[in-house]
UniProtKB/TrEMBL annotation:
It is found in: Membrane. Belongs to the cytochrome P450 family. The keyword DNA repair does not apply. InterPro entries: Cyt_P450, Cyt_P450_CS, Cyt_P450_E_grp-I, Cyt_P450_sf, Cytochrome_P450_Monooxygen. This is Cytochrome P450. GO terms for cellular component: membrane. The keyword ATP-binding does not apply. It comes from Adiantum capillus-veneris.
Length: 475
């Protein structure tokens, strides 16, 4: 009897494994091919984990298969969509048919926070947190941002004429700022460094998995000892920050309306709320809010270091403003155009990914449940049909009359995503970037070090694989 039961269980397990690993992917693949969508299967040997290899595969596939094609890696079937109108439909009208993509779902540290959850759980958190980062609320943080950026940049004078990796300096600044603005805690330099180094190592380990067909069969969420170590360190630090805030929240006379306070109050007040609401979202805000902004700063410094005429123009504009404040920020028009162009050429989040949860139709193509969808933002931002023959060139002037006039199809510009899940921190990110670059331009000129190796690398964000060494000269 016992043996028979074990055999039934084993047969069911084998059947389930077969269905999940072979039958389901082949059905998804068939759903693509019968609608005329071409594509390819990445063999284990092809599934390269290096920046150049990945962009080569992507470029080659776009040339061969056009604006919609499938890629199969292990048991995961993904549809790559580049057509701006289909992307718009996917992210806006049909948004509720999709959850976040595989990579984000695998990142345990984001838990069920606002970045990774879906459905009503996501909507609840989005409503709670969204307005914390509106311009109206950020006005109260302007001085914090200004002071941090100014002090940070002024400290670099000791580094003038030396080669400095400005990417690391920006990461340190942006971790500190997001902790202060979202959690109300100013953190020590060594903690900021620990957070961005651990986070980077954590993302890299997950990236290797997502590029590997092996893990597609065994599950991306399965954690190795090394991943658990990074996660443990990050979570311990984040829990300590939350604990500190919780202890002082009730004793504070005036409410500051910070994201963390709203989360703590919600967790204390509402029954049935997600028990890890505070930790998941604090991790999310720190992680989503530092590397992206640091990358925007880094790539802008790179572009200004390789286009010295634009660096000079931006500097004269900055020098025309004696003391920067909320009111005269709008005078930084050239800097604004430079930032849009930087976001176009080097979008800090270069891929937006989704998983189809309910069958739906996009541009007459039926997207079946279970299909992963990949939107390669960086490729869309360089599409010659939309941006013109000079799409690979750095020309901030294309944004002189705003985003809508910069290209043929404005919905092709997606640095902060689109639709209901658009970035909640975009105003904050642009504010931090403008203030920091204003102080940098006023204090220094810079060139890219001859030792710099250009290798934009995709993890969750687009970062310079070998850092961004520059040579600063005090003005
Ligand atoms: C230059 C800097 C930034 C860029 C390029 C950027 C980019 C993006 C993009 C493309 C998305 C949409 C992802 C998707 O649809 O799957 C997103 C979502 C998000 N971003 Fe940002 N981001 C930046 C800065 C920030 C900052 C400073 C914060 C912190 C407040 C933040 C918090 C978030 C959150 C919480 C979401 C998820 C929103 C949701 O799903 O409802 N981001 N970001």
């Amino acid at each position: 009897m016992m043996v028979a039961m074990m055999m039934v269980v084993a047969a069911a397990a084998v059947g389930w494994g077969w269905w999940l690993s072979f039958w389901k992917p082949s059905q998804l693949l068939y759903a693509c091919t019968r609608q005329g969508i071409c594509g390819f299967t990445l063999s284990p040997l092809q599934s390269v984990d290096c920046a150049e290899g990945r962009s080569w595969i992507l470029l080659n596939s776009i040339q061969r298969h056009g604006k919609m094609f499938y890629v199969k890696l292990g048991k995961v079937v993904s549809l790559v969509v580049l057509d701006p109108l289909s992307v718009q439909q996917l992210l806006t009208q049909n948004a509720d048919c999709y959850a976040k993509g595989l990579f984000v779902r695998a990142l345990g540290i984001l838990g069920n926070g606002v970045f990774s959850s879906s459905g009503s759980e996501w909507m609840d958190q989005r409503q709670l947190l969204g307005h914390c980062f509106f311009m109206r609320e950020l006005k109260d943080h302007f001085e914090t941002i200004q002071e941090a950026a100014k002090n940070h940049v002024e400290c670099w004078s000791a580094l003038a004429t030396e080669v400095v990796d400005v990417h690391k300096l920006f990461l340190e600044l942006t971790v500190g700022l997001i902790c202060e603005i979202a959690i109300g805690e100013s953190i020590e330099k060594k903690i900021a460094i620990m957070i961005f180094e651990r986070f980077n190592s954590y993302l890299n380990k997950y990236r290797q998995r997502v590029c590997s067909p092996f893990y597609s069969f065994f599950g991306y969420r399965w954690k190795s000892q090394y991943i658990m170590e990074d996660e443990k360190h990050l979570l311990t630090t984040i829990k300590e920050l939350v604990c500190k805030r919780e202890q002082t929240l009730n004793s504070r006379s005036s409410k500051e309306g910070l994201a963390i306070d709203l989360l703590i109050e919600r967790a204390q007040g509402k029954e049935n709320s997600n028990p890890s609401l505070v930790i998941d979202n604090t991790s999310t805000l720190i992680l989503a809010g530092h590397e992206t902004t640091a990358n925007l700063l880094t790539w802008t410094v790179y572009l200004l270091g390789t286009h010295l005429n634009w660096q000079e123009e931006a500097r004269s504009e900055a020098q025309g403003i004696i003391e920067l404040d909320m009111k005269n920020m709008s005078q930084l028009k050239i800097l604004g155009m430079i930032l849009w162009e930087s976001l176009r050429l080097y979008p800090p989040q270069p891929i937006i990914a989704r998983r189809c949860m309910r069958e739906n139709t996009v541009s007459d193509i039926i997207i079946p449940k279970g299909l992963e969808v990949i939107i390669p933002v960086s490729a869309m931002h360089r599409n010659k049909d939309v941006w013109g023959q000079d799409s690979e060139e750095f020309k901030p002037g294309r944004f002189a009359n705003g985003i809508n006039k910069a290209c043929k199809v404005p919905s092709s510009f997606l640095p902060f995503g689109s639709g209901p899940r658009t970035c909640i921190g975009q105003t904050l990110a642009l504010l931090e970037a403008k203030v920091t670059l204003y102080h940098m331009l006023k204090n220094y000129s810079w060139e890219i070090s001859p030792g710099y190796q250009h290798c934009p690398d995709v993890t969750l964000t687009l970062q310079p694989l070998f850092g961004m060494p520059i040579i600063l000269v005090r003005q």
